[in-house]
């Protein structure tokens, strides 16, 4: 079965640089979520999109922005990177929010290292 | 604001033992509760999803229960195996679908 695809899997950037993380949801899934997991931490919700519209926003820095495209893939753009942005970034997808099930399927994550 | 807590933070058991992982949440208005497994440095694998209207879900050796009134969920693992060693995370889902995670329980099953 197809899973959530994230690219790149690993990314090394320097401080103040920008980074773009991509997420391709499971086919027919129209909702995408982004989470950040710092070292030794639990995943923290950043932002979500349903049908290309932002549906919820968590503790996402103003330096970060995201969008969902017409083919439902999503991109997380991170600017002015800081050392503290080093983390594992997960994307998850699910079927429409209106459905009773919000079971989320997670991608393998993008490991971002800021030096 | 939803807060999710997991106890214990770490657990070590001998192979074959049955065990229970605990998860508590503060906001009873959750839409669902999901249990995940995470291996070191890896992604999250969904184990079980319990809808708010359900009391429990079972998959193989795993059984998860949900008691909204007391704000608790448990994950029961029967006949534990060394391959079950991982971190187990529970997460409460809200009406927009976002998940609030607990800090996880790191399980070690010794052969």
Explained architecture:
The complex is a heterodimer of chains A (115) and B (111). Chain A has strands spanning 5-7, 10-13, 19-24, 31-37, 44-50, 53-57, 64-68, 74-78, 87-94, 105-106, 110-114. Chain A is mostly beta strands and 115 residues long. The termini of chain A are far apart. In chain A, strands 2, 4, 5, 6, 9, 10 and 11 form a seven-stranded mixed beta sheet that branches. Chain B is an all-beta fold and 111 residues long. In chain B, 0% of the residues lie in helices and 58% in strands. In chain B, the strands form two sheets. In chain B, strands 2, 4, 5, 9, 10 and 11 form a six-stranded mixed beta sheet that branches. A five-stranded antiparallel beta sheet of chain B has the order 1-3-8-7-6, with no helix packed on it. In chain B, a hairpin with a 2-residue loop joins strand 6 and strand 7 (62-67). Chain B is globular, with a radius of gyration of 13 Å.
């Amino acid at each position: 079965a197809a899973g959530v695809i994230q690219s790149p899997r690993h990314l090394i950037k320097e401080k103040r640089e920008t980074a773009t993380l991509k997420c391709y949801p499971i086919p027919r899934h129209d909702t995408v979520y982004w989470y950040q997991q710092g070292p030794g931490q639990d995943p923290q919700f950043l932002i979500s999109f349903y049908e290309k519209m932002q549906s919820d926003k968590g503790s996402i820095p103003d330096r970060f922005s995201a969008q969902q495209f017409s083919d439902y893939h999503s991109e997380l753009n991170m600017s002015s990177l800081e050392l503290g942005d080093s983390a594992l970034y997960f994307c998850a997808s699910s079927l429409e929010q209106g459905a009773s099930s919000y079971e989320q399927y997670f991608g393998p994550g993008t490991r971002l290292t800021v030096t | 604001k939803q807060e999710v807590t997991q106890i214990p933070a770490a657990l070590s058991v001998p192979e074959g033992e049955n065990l229970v992982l605990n998860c508590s949440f503060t906001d009873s208005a959750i839409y669902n509760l999901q249990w995940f497994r995470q291996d070191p440095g890896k992604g999250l694998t969904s184990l079980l999803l319990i809808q708010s209207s359900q009391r429990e879900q079972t998959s193989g050796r795993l059984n998860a229960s949900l008691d909204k009134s007391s704000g608790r969920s448990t994950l029961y693992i029967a006949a534990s195996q060394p391959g079950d060693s991982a971190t187990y995370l529970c997460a409460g889902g809200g009406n927009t679908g976002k998940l609030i995670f607990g800090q996880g329980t790191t399980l070690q099953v010794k052969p």
